[in-house]
Structure formats: C-alpha cells, structure tokens
Amino acid sequence: MKHNIYIYILISGLVSYLIRVLPLTLIRKPIRNVFLKSFLYYVPYATLAVMTFPAIIEATSSPVSGWLALAAGTILSWQNRSLPTVAAACCIVVFIAETFL
Amino acid sequence: MQKENSDALRRGIRDGMPICIGYAAVAFSLGIAMRNAGMNAFQGFLLSMLNMASAGEYAGVQVIMADAAYIEMALVTLIANARYLLMSTALSQRFSEKTAFIHRLIVGYCITDELFGIAVSQKGYLNPFYYYGAMLVAIPGWSFGTALGIIAGNILPAHIVSALSVALYGMFLAIIIPPARTDKVVAASVISGFALSWCAKYIPLLKDLNAGMKTIVLTLIIAGAAAAFFPRKEESDEA
C-alpha cells in the first residue's frame, strides 16, 4: 500500500463532517432550485442500488444464497419491515442456505 | 442542566436504544468488510466514529482496498453521503433562532438516516439535547460494533461470516425499497441502479473503473436523468 490509511480515514471523516455541517450552519432558507432539490433527493436511491447489486450475490460463499438474500430483503422491505429486521433476515437466509444447501 | 433539557436527553437515549442495537449489528458486518480490506480494529473504530455512515464507509473501504488516490476518497465520500446534504438542509429549518450556534456544529457531526428520522418526528423546534441523547448510544453502538466485526470476524466460522456480510446490503434494501413502492421515479432509479451496475462489468471504459468511481459515475447519470426528466413538485419534502 502506497497510501497512508490514516490519511484516508481523516479525509473521509472531514468530508463527511463538512457535508453534514455546512447546510446546517449556512442554509437558513429552503433550497428553491427544483433540479438541485430533485437531484439530491434521487442520489441516495441511485447510489445504494448501484452498491447493492450485483455486490450482494458476490459477497456470499455461493451466488445462490446471495440471490435468496436479495429476494428476502426486497420482499421484507416492500412490506415496510424495519431496517434491523430486514438486515437480520438477509443474514438468516444466507446462513440457512449455506448450512443446508 | 435545565429540567427541560435533561428530560429531552433522557428521551433521546430511550429512542436511540433500538438504533444502537441495529447499528451494532450492521457495523459488525461493515467490520468484516474492513477486515477483508486489511484494516485493524482501531482503524475501523476510528473510521466509523469519524464518519457515522454505512454507505459512505463501505464505499471508502473500496477506495482503501484499491489503494486509490486521496482525491477519490473525498469524491466517493461526498457522493455516497450526498443525501446528508438534504437532511442537514431539512434539519437547519428545525432549529429555533434562540438555539446557540454551537449546537448546530455538534448535531451536524451525527446526521444519519435513523437519527434524522427520529429528530424530524419530534414536534416543534428540535431540542439539541434530545439529539445528544440519541447520539450518546448510537455512536458507541456503531463504532464498537465495527471494531468487534474486525476482531470477531477472524474467529467466526466462514459460513457465519458469509451470512453476516449481507446485513449491510439488507440495510440498503430497507432504505431504498419502501420509497420505491410509492414513488415510480425512485423505483425506476433503483432498477436502473441494479441494471447499470450489472451491465457496467461488461461495458468498455466503465469496467476498467474501480468500484467507487463506478458508483459515482452511475449515480450522476441516474440521479441526473431522474431530476432532469422528473423534477419533484414542491411540498413533498420527505427526505
């Protein structure tokens, strides 16, 4: 590794802090620009979707258990189950699949 | 401390407890990813304590694994955490003008999906001490959970590690799927995200990018197109 891990950590921490604290301290009025508002609104969904798939089927020992976890997580989220419930269910599905299949 | 503030602090701790437990479990899975990237428990603890962000940290670990440029770490963190710009903007409207400026500096450190969720569900102006109560339990849950994942990830058998490593993706699904039910554009963004991310492995230029840069490029394309073609109407401010 040619880069220092602590510098990576400091950079990410600093950027995370600035992202959160700048609007909170600088913006006292609501954002009016419709494109910017819309863009910011859609960003998390696009980002998280890109990071979730196909990574979820590559994270497990076998792709089949990853697919099953994706299916279980999608169905439970669709039913508005809480975040810890969905996360735990995905783990249990993979555990069962890899123990018995 | 005034009674009003100590009451708020206590309520914050109470509401933060389930978040603390959930964070510990998810952070454990994040710790496993960090262990695979060659990070030790202290480094993971520090990264989690300074970031308090699942998606942002996960993307950051990919940058560390790729040994990519420092600027890429800044960009990836910015993109993965961009949603906090929105939440921070929303929270800025919740502070009373009488609330001292320092409280904005401290609350800003710990804006997460879940703490934002409980904060905006409070009626009237936000008492910063309510937020501090939730932070008091959520931050240790997240940071120590990460360190524990790095340490215990070594001890646990392979199929348990494999099972825990999907907790993070489960959490991402729990964030993106429910709004996709009611908002067709969000649904289209999620499906495009899945599809393009899959296709990117076969598209020239895109397939040569590392995971963090791929996430940035695809996010800009998808969210940009969604905002350009389907701008959101006013007064639907669910962040």
Write the topology of this structure.
The complex is a heterodimer of chains A (101) and B (239).
Chain A: H1 5-26, H2 34-52, H3 55-59, H4 63-78, H5 83-100
Helix pairs in contact in A: 4-5
Chain B: H1 3-36, H2 41-51, H3 54-66, H4 70-80, H5 83-92, H6 101-107, H7 113-120, H8 128-152, H9 158-164, H10 167-182, H11 184-199, H12 211-229
Helix pairs in contact in B: 1-3, 1-8, 2-8, 3-4, 4-12, 10-11, 11-12
Explain this structure.
The complex is a heterodimer of chains A (101) and B (239). By secondary structure, chain A is an all-alpha fold. Chain A has a domain at 32-100. Chain A has five helices and no strands. Chain A has helices at 5-26, 34-52, 55-59, 63-78, 83-100. In chain A, helix 4 (63-78) runs antiparallel to helix 5. Chain A is extended, with a radius of gyration of 19 Å. The N and C termini of chain A lie far apart (38 Å). The model of chain A has no long low-confidence stretch (mean pLDDT 88). With 239 residues, chain B is mainly alpha-helical. Chain B has two domains: 3-164, no CATH class; 183-229. Chain B is built from twelve helices and no strands. In chain B, helix 4 (70-80) runs parallel beside helix 12 and helix 11 runs antiparallel to helix 12 (211-229). The longest helix of chain B is centred in the first third of the chain and has 34 residues, at 3-36. The two termini of chain B are 32 Å apart. Mean pLDDT of chain B is 86; it is low at 235-239.
